[in-house]
């Protein structure tokens, strides 16, 4: 990180500022990441999707719910947002803020066969929290059925999720 800080001191560019913010985000230093992402959003870069989505992530992990929503509103119309990590974190924030209906709408965008198992697992958990155990059970069963038809490399790659999903389905029955 000190190399990136030196690089930024030597040359105050958008790329150097974002690279340092990314490093802070990865290290869990959210206030520092937020400061550098925000300082990057100037002039032609004021609507940069990558920076805003990472800023949203930093705000999420720093428990700044209102700021997560502000960031999301800036990039909601961007096609990249639909199934992004930022969209997922936005949905979780909406739930925490008491907007379960909107949260469910966003989480359901991740519900596609043979993909996004982590997000779909969280959708199933969300459905349980919303007192929709039958919907959750159906989603768990869909994923278990997909696992049975999955290629061996994909199965191995998702092994830890498969175990969790099967256990949570078993607990529902």
Keywords:
173 residues, mainly alpha, Serine Threonine Protein Phosphatase 5, Tetratricopeptide repeat, 74% helix
Which helices and strands occur, and which strands form pairs?
Blueprint: H1 2-10, H2 14-27, H3 30-40, H4 49-61, H5 65-75, H6 85-96, H7 100-108, H8 117-129, H9 133-148, H10 152-157, H11 159-172
Helix pairs in contact: 1-2, 2-3, 3-4, 4-5, 4-6, 5-6, 6-7, 8-9, 9-11
Give an overview of the whole structure.
It comes from Flagellimonas algicola. This is Tetratricopeptide repeat protein. With 173 residues, the protein is an all-alpha fold. It has two domains: 1-99, Serine Threonine Protein Phosphatase 5, Tetratricopeptide repeat (Alpha Horseshoe), CATH 1.25.40.10; 110-173, no CATH class. Helices cover 74% and strands 0% of the residues. It has eleven helices and no strands. It has helices spanning 2-10, 14-27, 30-40, 49-61, 65-75, 85-96, 100-108, 117-129, 133-148, 152-157, 159-172. Helix 1 (2-10) runs antiparallel to helix 2 (14-27), helix 5 packs across helix 6 and helix 6 packs antiparallel against helix 7. The longest helix is centred in the C-terminal third of the chain and has 16 residues, at 133-148. The protein is elongated and about 60 Å long. The chain starts with a helix and ends with a helix. The model has no long low-confidence stretch (mean pLDDT 92).
């Amino acid at each position: 990180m000190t190399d990136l800080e030196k690089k930024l001191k030597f040359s105050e560019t958008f790329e150097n500022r974002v690279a340092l913010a990314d490093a802070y985000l990865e290290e869990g230093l959210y206030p520092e990441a937020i400061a550098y992402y925000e300082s990057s959003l100037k002039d032609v870069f004021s609507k940069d999707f990558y920076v805003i989505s990472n800023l949203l992530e930093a705000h999420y992990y720093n428990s700044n719910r209102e700021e997560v929503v502000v960031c999301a509103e800036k990039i909601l119309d961007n096609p990249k947002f639909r199934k992004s990590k930022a969209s997922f974190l936005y949905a979780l924030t909406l739930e925490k803020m008491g907007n379960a209906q909107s949260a469910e709408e966003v989480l359901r965008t991740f519900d596609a066969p043979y993909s996004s198992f982590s997000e779909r697992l969280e959708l199933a958990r969300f459905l349980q929290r919303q007192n929709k155990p039958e919907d959750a059970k159906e989603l768990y069963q869909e994923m278990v059925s997909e696992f049975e038809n999955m290629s061996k490399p994909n199965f191995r790659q998702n092994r830890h999720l498969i175990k969790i999903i099967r256990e949570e389905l078993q607990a529902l029955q």
